[in-house]
Design goal:
The chain is an all-alpha fold. Among the domains are: 9-111, no CATH class; 296-343. 84% of the residues lie in helices and 3% in strands. A two-stranded antiparallel ribbon has the order 1-2. Strand 1 and strand 2 form a beta hairpin. It is flat. The relative contact order is 0.02. The model is unreliable at 1-15 (pLDDT under 50).
């Protein structure tokens, strides 16, 4: 939607009635030239800026009121257009809807007929497949494309093959049953022979077990005798080993006792030497400390005199609080110094 420059009215391409406002472009240009660039950097300029804002705001409010008044008729017209359009549309829909229903009914019946035809074809196809499966036919990929004549021919051929297979299977079954009966008879005779052999084997096995039991009993008696002799020998060996261990332990204890006594003697001598040395060094330290204190006596006396001198100093009279505070700190420090002089070399 295009627009042209305002000269006191708005003209649009789709509205023929001019839209007029109270403010012209010339008035806006004059206002912008007068107010643009104002700075509120002084009291006078601040008042000018404030006045300019009020002037522009008044014009803007006027334009907004005019806009609302101008739109009221347009809004009423728009509501009238919507109402009339709905009335006409409702009349047209009342004509169109029954036609749509008839159209949908026809299309539904058409689709339903297509569905019935499809289902009938599928049922016929399944009937053919079931008949072919019943005679052992399993190549089903071409069945949907057969004509009725091709289906009848293939079904007849498959039926002949199936019946031939059934006859062959029956003959094979009879032959298998005959062979199975012969094998059963052979198995029966072998079983009888096996049972006879097993009976003879069990008789021989019983005789062998009795002989083995007699031999086992004899071997048990011999093993018990040998075991008794072995235990007696082991008891004697254990007694001899125990006596030898006790003798060796006594020798080892005696040796360890002698070594411990010698070690105790050496330790006692070393301890006595250490104690004597400690006493000698302690005496030397006491003597050195006495000499050091004796040597320090003159210095200690001098420091004590210095401390007493510091205590006897005459201090000036201070007239200000700051001076009194400083003097107090000095007296405190000199007092600590005098105390240190007394204790430094004591």
């Amino acid at each position: 939607m295009g627009t042209v420059e305002l000269t006191g009215e708005l003209v649009t391409n789709n509205i023929h009635q001019p839209i007029k406002f109270e403010v012209t472009n010339e008035a806006i240009r004059t206002l912008a030239k007068r107010l643009t660039g104002l700075k509120a950097d002084t009291p006078a300029n601040y008042l000018a800026v404030k006045s300019g804002i009020a002037e522009v705001r008044t014009l803007r409010v006027t334009i907004d009121k005019t806009r609302k008044n101008l739109k009221e008729d347009a809004l009423a017209y728009g509501r009238l257009v919507e109402s009339e359009a709905k009335r006409i549309t409702d009349l047209l829909v009342a004509i169109e809807e029954p036609l749509k229903v008839e159209k949908q009914k026809f299309e539904y019946e058409k689709e339903a007929e297509k569905e019935r035809i499809f289902v009938a074809k599928q049922r016929a196809l399944q009937t053919r497949i079931d008949a072919l499966i019943a005679v052992g036919f399993n190549r089903m990929s071409h069945v949907p494309h057969w004509t009725d004549e091709e289906y009848i021919q293939e079904l007849a051929r498959a039926t002949d093959e199936w019946e031939t297979k059934l006859r062959k299977d029956a003959a094979d079954k009879i032959e298998a049953e005959r062979i199975e009966a012969e094998q059963a008879e052979v198995c029966r005779l072998k079983t009888i022979a096996y049972l006879q052999e097993r009976k003879e084997f069990e008789i021989a096995l019983d005789a062998s077990r009795k002989l083995d039991a007699e031999r086992a009993e004899q071997n048990r008696i011999e093993r018990e005798s040998i075991e008794a002799e072995r235990k007696a020998l082991q008891v004697e060996r254990d007694r001899i080993d125990k006596e030898e261990r006790e003798r060796q332990q006594a020798i080892e204890l005696e040796r360890l006792g002698k070594e411990q006594a010698e070690q105790d003697r050496v330790n006692a001598n070393a301890l006595a030497v250490h104690i004597a040395e400690e006493k000698r060094l302690a005496a030397i330290r006491v003597e050195d400390e006495a000499k050091r204190r004796e040597a320090q006596k003159p210095d200690a006396e001098k420091l004590k005199i210095l401390g007493d001198t510091l205590r006897l100093l005459a201090y000036p009279e201070m007239s200000t609080d700051e001076g009194k505070e400083c003097l107090f700190q000095i007296v405190e420090q000199l007092g600590r110094t005098a105390q240190y002089c007394d204790e430094c070399l004591s």
